[in-house]
Amino acid sequence: xxxxxxxxxxxxxxxxxxxxxxxxxxxxxxxxxxxxxxxxxxxxxxxxxxxxxxxxxxxxxxxxxxxxxxxxxxxxxxxxxxxxxxxxxxxxxxxxxxxxxxxxxxxxxxxxxxxxxxxxxxxxxxxxxxxxxxxxxxxxxxxxxxxxxxxxxxxxxxxxxxxxxxxxxxxxxxxxxxxxxxxxxxxxxxxxxxxxxxxxxxxxxxxxxxxxxxxxxxxxxxxxxxxxxxxxxxxxxxxxxxxxxxxxxxxxxxxxxxxxxxxxxxxxxxxxxxxxxxxxxxxxxxxxxxxxxxxxxxxxxxxxxxxxxxxxxxxxxxxxxxxxxxxxxxxxxxxxxxxxxxxxxxxxxxxxxxxxxxxxxxxxxxxxxxxxxxxxxxxxxxxxxxxxxxxxxxxxxxxxxxxxxxxxxxxxxxxxxxxxxxxxxxxxxxxxxxxxxxxxxxxxxxxxxxxxxxxxxxxxxxxxxxxxxxxxxxxxxxxxxxxxxxxxxxxxxxxxxxxxxxxxxxxxxxxxxxxxxxxxxxxxxxxxxxxxxxxxxxxxxxxxxxxxxxxxxxxxxxxxxxxxxxxxxxxxxxxxxxxxxxxxxxxxxxxxxxxxxxxxxxxxxxxxxxxxxxxxxxxxxxxxxxxxxxxxxxxxxxxxxxxxxxxxxxxxxxxxxxxxxxxxxxxxxxxxxxxxxxxxxxxxxxxxxxxxxxxxxxxxxxxxxxxxxxxxxxxxxxxxxxxxxxxxxxxxxxxxxxxxx
Length: 741
Fold this sequence. Notes:
The chain is of the alpha/beta class. It has 24 helices and 32 strands. Helix 13 (508-514) links the parallel strand 25 (502-505) and strand 26 (522-524). The longest helix is centred in the first third of the chain and has 18 residues, at 124-141.
């Protein structure tokens, strides 16, 4: 029954006397969650059939009365029900942020005798491929929960009949992404499509997937094909929209996306509603538990019980085949048993022996951390170990000038045809053709930098050359390459890990992602930082002069976020935290302006979305700086360094900011926690604007008070463990050991 003390609720639209005609009928109203809670989903049960509703719809008069301001959260809801013949009970439930369902309304119903019978649901055998991993992931996240309850929740989610909506005239449009499956990259969902209105101007589009975080979409982008269908539609040539919406963890699946349009007359309309199943293609995913036959049997039994409670057919003989397939799928995805990666051997007595002729393969020549890593390695190979070094990349870029200015020749080799192959055989044939002109006869060792450069390993093997593969990624092969390669090539990438003479990880957390491919060839060898170069740069450059050079206020407090502007780096969270702190900044830094500086702006949809978000939020305290080779200028001129990445292996920016003795606020992802502790920096989870804002508040307070404890500890930590004078000789010694096995 309803919980009147905790939830406020009213049904405003429903059939008289709860008598449903044949066909579809709307019910609608509003819901307000208790203090410190929000609605995260809504469903109506007609007997044992769940119908997923539209929740979080704007109701301006209700929202203002309940909140004292406009939403979000929004109070409105609606459900479209098609009760079957003979149905007798309707229940309405709302889900809270903890995943608990609360019954708000229960009533007896009658249904017209000419209504269709209840549809035959899918069997447990049909649903098992999605139910088993869903149930196992729920268990990994809630280990204390009852398995039967988790099975019920997974089955109810799978059975729910979604309600999706499209624009109604005078709106016209289409939602093109997401559809039934939504691709999630680092906690964000890409949203694309087109929308126009016949009589009014659309002034703003927003998208929302949870109760609170509403995201603006770019609208008014060029669109060429709408006129072919709607030749007289105003705005057809600029009807395209695109953008991102935050997808917080813990949302019910399938997730409800709502897109709302504001018109120049002040009206606000729901134009799209789409239920979708999230598919994580980049970023953190709730893990499966380790493979265990007993847990598999218990989970399968719990799902059988849930199927019986929901009057679901088991599927007869098909259930056995489905169970075997589910076990095989879990076995393929289950985390491997822990295995300690071996640290690379310390330099031996031959540590000064020359390295010979080395071909370095970079994944690109952009101004990014990985090419700079390779540049330092190349310089050390050449100057300290007498190597002859050449650089190869499949893409040209500004780093080419850096390599060539240092006397390191660069060649660009087009391997796109091989990477576009749809079979291992085609890949091998095209790779041979693409790399035939490389100087194999004058090469003793191949060093491939990043997993993207995997192709260099089979090319080296083809010519009988040893290969080092440096892996800086922390995303599994199949998920990382899903948007880049044909699935038939995933085993080719995995085989490159096995065929490399050594696979080098700079962080143990990255090794853990790939340990199922380790048969003794993996080594751990942390990266380095040239502290002498940093200290010399700091001594030679005045902070105020550098600020004037880049058009920044010499007197301001500068919070600097350095890294290529992209979803993985999470700069949207930086802007969101700035919006949360804006009103407090005069108190935190009295008498001084505060600027949030984003360094590494690269043209693209993500940067456009950030700029629009800053404009709509009137965040005039944000500066965007393009990618630049003068990156050390920004460490030197910064007051605080901020890293908002969702995924990193052993990020160079953390080493460099610590080298410059900056206070560091960073997400605690992958190898960052191996580099610094909470005593050295302010560590926060990725994608959480509120915790990031709290950490920035604390860091600014320490900065204003002159407290340099954390920056001093961070500098000492990296000086002790990652000094280039110690680390680079170990990398060179590994290369020598590969040449002399």
